[in-house]
Amino acid sequence: MLIRKPADIPSSEITPESVYINRREFIGKSAGIGLAGAAGAGVVGSMFAGAGQASAQTQVGQRDWSAVRTELDEELTPREDVTTYNNFYEFGTQKEDPARYAQTLQPRPWTIEVDGLCANPGTYGLEDFIQPGTMEDRIYRMRCVEAWSMVIPWYGFELRSVIDRAEPLGSARYVEFKTLHDPVQMPGQRSRVLDWPYSEGLRLDEARHPLAILATGVYGQDLPNQNGAPIRLVVPWKYGFKGIKSIVSMTFMEQEPYNSWKRANSYEYGFYANVNPAVNHPRWSQARERRLGEFRRRETLLFNGYVDQVAGLYAGMDLRVNY
Ligand code: MTE
After folding, report:
1. Topology (CATH level 3) of domain 17-314
2. Quick one: which atom of ligand 1 is closest to the CA of 86?
3. What is the rounded CA–CA span in Å between residue 34 and residue 192?
């Protein structure tokens, strides 16, 4: 990733999101397994415990996000920052580029291919792809490898639901994701800043962890293009670059996928990318971070604060070697 002088992000009030529109039908019977039920998932604010089977319906509702806090009593990062301070190199390398230029992306219609080592491969339109998922709000910290962070209210479903539908074979140990490759819709792909398409991967047990989600919305609205419309990965205990945007494929593999940033510079970026204040980036410390909207830097937490939930995935592994 490029090193840049952090932009001056003014500390501002949380923007309450009064109207929210998304494509899922709210089904009251599932409300109990929303935010409150996901306490192990590190989300707080059960007043918004909206969950329901994924469907193609449109729902309009009202929410006031200003009272929402994380389990560590952190405030949400203002929507304005979440949607204008982005990394999406397919639209440029400056933080403001994606919000400015991503209108060329057409997130509908959208197709996702599921293939590789699985008994039930398939090609799905977005609405069918998300069908096994239970939609819910998940408030997660996001820690970028560049040492800035946010708190973001995603809307999405657990990744494991679509993995289970695919029925991975016993030989499948990893899952790889790819972003759309279309330089017309994504003009940044005309530059060679990365080897396109952007790709990322997880070990299958990481991918099946209940904290790992596929998000289709943020702040109660469908994802804006700059945040990875129409569907992106969110793995909150890992550096943000694992959160691949605008996904068009999911492939089950035996070998570790060769993810984009490792391919770009394997000395600086690894496959695991677990947030770890004790393992510095070769060019900067990872001990502290700048939370957007705050002046003082905060301490970075092991596994981004999700240590109780995910440390077991890495028992016996040397986190300095597997960075
Ligand atoms: N996905 C694609 N396809 N292209 C990218 O450049 N950037 C990654 C990740 N996903 C990136 C991507 C990085 S470095 C980060 S920090 C997060 O997206 C940023 O997500 P956000 O812009 O929604 O905050």
Report:
1. Sulfite Oxidase; Chain A, domain 2 (3.90.420)
2. 22
3. 42
